[in-house]
Queue: 2 jobs
Job 1
Amino acid sequence: MPQITFDHVTFAYPESSAPALRDVSLQVEAGQFMLVVGPSGSGKSTLLRCINGLAPHFSGGTLAGRVLVDGRDTREHPPRDLASVVGFVFQDPEAQFVTERVEDELAFALENAGVPQLTMRKRVEEVLDALGIASLRNRAVSSLSGGEQQRVAIAAALALQPKILVLDEPTSQLDPQSAEDVLSALVRLNADLGLTIVLAEHRLERVLQYADRVVFLPEAGATPLAGDPREVMEAIALTPPLVTLGKALGWRPLPLTIKEGRRFAGALSVERGAWSDDLPPSGRPALQASDLRPPVLNARDVWLAYDGAEVLRGVSLAVGAGELIALMGRNGSGKTTLLRTIVGLVRPQRGQVMVNGASVLGQSTADICRQVGYVPQNPAALLFADAVRDELLITLRNHGLDEATAPVEPGELLRTLGLSDVATLYPRDLSTGQRQRTALASVLVTRPQVLLLDEPTRGLDYAAKATLTGILKRWQAQGTAIVMVTHDVELVATCADRVALMAEGEIVVDGPVRQVLSESAIFSSQINKLFGAPSLLTVDDVLAQR
Amino acid sequence: MLNARAWLVWIAAALGVAMLATNPLYLVIVLLCAAMVRAGFGAGGTSLPVWRFGVTVVAFSTFYNALLTHFGDTALVTLPRALPLVGGPVTLEAAAFGATRGLALWALFAVVAVLNDVVSPYELVRLTPRFLRSAGLVISIMLAFVPQTIKSLRQVREAQAIRGHRLRGVRDLTALLVPLMTDSLEKAVQLAEAMEARGYGQISPSGAKSEIRNTCTCAARKRKCRCPKSEILMAGGLSGVLLGWLIEAYWRNGMGWAIIVAGVMALAVGLRLVTARAPRTTRYRRQTWSARDTLLVASSVAPLAAIIAVTLLDPQALAFYPYPRVTLPPFDARLGLCLALLSAPAFFNVERRVLSVERST
């Protein structure tokens, strides 16, 4: 008998006319690793919440059909009863902690279940080891990194020894290294302990190889497609670069890992040119010498220390009009601090920041931001108006402008960003991608010449990412200088001109995208890993040669 | 590591002593003890805030009392009588009285500061009795929410500055408060969901009658109406105690005492019932009680007992009343030594329970 059975499940949230899930029938066997994929808003979270009864018991709404979990019907068992069968991990690691200390967090569910103290101590030790977090046991949860927090959350969910672990995009708020730690912990739990795992995830390239089954939800209320990972990848359009290339070139069986792909790549006859100066950035012609005007943004020898620790140590960065620079590097290497310094949120001890040839040091953030647009990592902090359109008007008003004097017509900007349909909606009700674009719009409405983006693709699905890339390229063509902090190598490969790598508060490499990415082992795109040639970074690069 | 309950006894004793002794010399002893304990636990006995607070309070209270109270024989200066309130002689006595009062406040503050240093608020929350566990949990979540909220306020402030927001008037605060509120509410809902998913409020198989938080809408769980026995008992008990006290105050015939005893018993039974009905939960942390904890309790209770005894037998020995002419306050070395016992924990040489918050890199 399958461990989880969805039997003609239709679910609609309260006050919503269209169901989020319509007539879903699915089965998950014990010990399976099931991946749930689909664009944001397609009902992935709802599907997961049906497994432990959060839908409908917590969210409200109507459920037709039935969900059986380990023989129990979720209509009769609320989530708190199912906690001993299903462990649940949420997207935002910080929002799920109840106590202050790691050990207490793990014991929380056990204390509530009235587990005797001796058993409880044993269980806590077990989950500490299972997730490799024994060294964190006495730490305050608020002091942990995102990846550590998420592993603590998984351990806490496992304390009740559930048979099933459900995770709702657990890595979407994490940087690649932390995400990797979390995912490899999951793979180990699945392989060693036989835990059934149901995981919603949009970084397919990282998890596809571990999944036994993939469920694809095309959109809210649509029939899901379930099956073997290869079958599902064949059938859907938005796939990781490797799979896209494999499909385009007819590689069968479809490669899901770089290792599988290399067999096919080796046999392919393409030009694997070495690095040379005349290789254009992917997707557009190289900048000619005549294009090189004096830089719009010029930071020179910037030094900054917080609490005695040097965060920036003599950083110099110049960005010309129409140039897109990707700022990459480990967490804590000073990338975000550099952006914050440019817009005056922190004051450097030494150095100079010039915009259009004039120093901006000492000016207030509000003044600097008329020329420099900055979109921080968490767009939610930016948005507070009742409607998307109002967000734009508020920025204009802050700068003493109105709709008539706006450098960009707000309606036009919303259209460019594909937000016209949601212009009157409440920003926080939107999908992650739409929210990210609303934040962009609210910054861009003053038409800044310099745009600073911090992790713009975090939490975005492939479609939203593609939209964003298109927009960035268009602005770049219009002469906006863009600096983008990101961990997303694929994004960098498709749209950056230059890459600057930061480490320990210094820029260690600054060069053309093809050179930097092909010479780096870690910051390298999937296609580049496959061919190892600077001329081949993206799927388009390879297909252009065919 | 010392038991939090033992610490509570110490705090209670030190507070009791500081409140009963108005004699500045004894207050100074309490203050010194508190400083030594803080220093002994690595919390910096001379850390600025407490001293700054103390000096400010003493100075303010001295100044204020000297200006406004015109009793006492030793006039320092005389302000023109025409000035309202402050006009008249400024006396040494009034200043001394003000200083003593300030000292008492400082001593209380110093003792509470020790509590803050040696026991984490989470340990205190864990001491809540079983039937108040939900309340304890709420406090503990609240404690975690404070730093989180400060963090999101910073984020929001920066995010708004980026959009050209300037704080010029009260109306501009909306741009900060609205995102902060929505953010906190969203976090609260997420936390509620996470707690539900982790079995909070479930009916444990071993605990039979744990239905207190049953809000489930399922028809199967609708229970028949429960007679609120415990509530009636507790309310009755409390009224009994009050009534007994009133009767005793008017008639003094012993009848009141009987009613008080009955009321206390009813209260106790009511509390027991509530406790039995509370969900059966267990605790992860062991409460260990070591010889040192016993020692701590003993060294706290002794000075308190001594001071209570002195208060009852010879109230004059503790009081300091500088009017009409200031004199040196009386000092009994035996009592002083006894009070110095409050510094005992400083010599225990136990590691302080630290919640490690060093940043991960």
Job 2
Amino acid sequence: MNTRKLRDIIGTNLMRIVTLSVSFLFFFILIILLYKSTLVLGTHSITDVLFSSIWNPDNDQFGLAAVIIDTILVTGIALFIAIPISLLSAVYIVEYAPLKLRRTIRPFIDVLAGVPSVVYGLCAFLFLAPFVKNVVAPWFGVQSTGLCIFSAAIILSIMVFPIIISLCIESFDAIPISLKEASLSIGATKWETVKKVVFRASAPSIIAAILLGFGRAFGETIAVNMVIGGTIRFPSSVFNPGETLASLIASKYGELMSIPLHESALMLVALILFIVVLLFYFIGFLLLRRAKKRWKY
Amino acid sequence: MNKRTIEEHIFKILMVASVCIVLGSLIVIFGLVIVNGISSLSLEMITQTPILTPPGNPPGGGILNAIVGSLLLALPATGLASLIGIGISLFLQTDFLPPAISNTIRFMLDVLWGIPSIIYGIFCLMIMIYIGMSSSLIVGIIALTMLEIPIITRCMDESIKMVPIGLREASYSLGSTKFETAVRVVRRQAFPGILAGILLGLGRGIGDAASILFTAGFSNRIPMSIFDSTAALPTMIYNLYSTPLGQSKAFAAAFLLLMIVLVVSVLSRLLTRRFKKHIIK
Amino acid sequence: MVSYQIETKNLDVYYHKNHVLKNVDIKIPAKQLTAVIGPSGCGKTTLLKSFNRLLEIQEDIKIKGQILVDGENILDRKASEVPDIRKKMGLLSQKPYPLPMSIRDNIAYGLRIHGTTNKGEIEKTVENCLKEVGLWDEVKGRLHDSASRLSVGQQQRLCLARAIAIQPEVVLCDEPTSALDPLAAQQIEKLLLRLKKDYTVVLVTHTLRQAKRVADHIIFLYFGMVIEQGPADEFFNAPQNPETKAYLSGEIS
């Protein structure tokens, strides 16, 4: 009897400690990043860092404006492409595709989600970049090496597809068929029903899916790093090379880790990245939880 | 004909085009990796470590260091993450905590899932430097474990949730404590789902580059101790992709990675299907 | 002379290879309330949903035979014309399903889809429909509120208002009171009695008592087959078939 109780108590408390420490992991991460950033923030004001575009660590200059612009461009373009394609695909899969097609497509989407970022980066480097260099950029009348903001945006959009598509499919599926019947029986076409009933009923989930997609795109390091070209300068076109907050960390880690001030600057970048992505995911998951509660029609 | 049907027609075309784009990109990526990867694969490639050759010559040897490195990194990490994951998910499920707190914890795990993996890499890097260690197998394992915990835990959590409450009540009424019920009854019922979650974590762990980039380092040799730096399939690709002579190795590694992803995907689908069949309602 | 608004001839419906409706021949008289009765699972809802071709949205459905609405076989029409067919019929489901929009927009939904853009016209129609179902006094101050805020009984009346807003000729009701409390159920029944003067009402119900209260015409379905159909008093007072007698006496339900 005694050993049984003892085992019980130890087991329970062990689980309790593990659970709490894991859950608050992100606090630990936040604290360490903050702590490490204080060094560079001691000598450089935050406005200098955010709004200057000159990044020259040897000269003590840590301006991130160009990097921030690049990040916004890459993420923005990627989502601009991914959102309509993902939404339309999800609608097709749930509402229009015949059953057999629906069953075969869904595993494909899951596989797309599981492909590692390096593999995306490899394909983008060796095939997308030359394509942009030889076909797309000249079509716009611009010269480019292909390693540019545009290429990064394209490969990112492909990585974001499965996130938005699978969340939307889950949400569309949860809508009771009688609601759609109610709309159809008034004489609406299937597309009108999708526009006015399905989208409206799923609106919070769709927004959550977009936010999660934003978070993913914003934080993607490796694939972007492999095709964006690594230049820190204000871009004059999307076919210029650039650097995002995430890819900067991967690029500069080697050269900057040895000097504390430089390391601190990089940690500041990581901090900014962390906070922004955290915000997107936080709000996104909050919306999703609320939407899931409502699904009990 | 009719304005409404024309609109529907146009959007139907757009929808099909969208699906084609999505599927097409998948097919293109797989096609590229498979075609280039298969041509690079040879017995030499998978059984030898890289042989350094004088500059200007293509590097010889294979990617055995990366293969072994990936296994040595991902398997222990997945094992650790699974143990921790089971502990946490059972704890959450078996009424130890009020639902408000356990739901908050679930929420935080969800958010942890989405954090870019480079953050985990940086976090472990900081700790590593602070302790005075250098990039090695052990640090890489820790970073991967952190990465995998949220994934595995939430998947396990979801599958345990499906265990009907009547089953737990039956166990309690026989005199088991909460802990015993957790371990004996709940775990067995949710087993296939748990396994699927573990596979998902493993797949993610093997494929991730950012978290091990700084923490596991790189090496052309197979690690001999846990304090050695080690290569892994993703870092091998990352290091070699831009050198024209190293690309065959990169594609071989990418091919292996994709095969692993496929296997994981297929296995977890089969498991979740078996799971649905055996569930007691 | 009774004119028949809806008729079916040799109607067979297969759902997932199950033969749900077998050789169904029925006639539904215009501007009367026809009740379709029978035990659960006998195909009543399937029959109802075949009238406005709503069955087609499900997978794996096969329909054979003829469904005549005002003499025309609607199964012959092209898929693109189906929304116009459905415009002729309103549907009231078992559980109320208000569209995810405001009370006003729920009713205006059908109007806007079919081309009405005049705001004044829409407002008037909304008011009239709400008055006809007896909701106007209860909601007139809060038309922009979300429809989900209403009680279940009010939601069902809203769905009825929504259905008649587009001026259908037929109102199809699928056990519309089964999810409601007795008071709300009574209100709906009263409304149906009023509606049958202007519309052809087809009511699926599995309570005999309800059919007795409101129906002018009865169709009795049993295991997907029509056993008996005819004017209500003939049906209840002089049933012809043994199954009908068994059902009426409560032996089978």
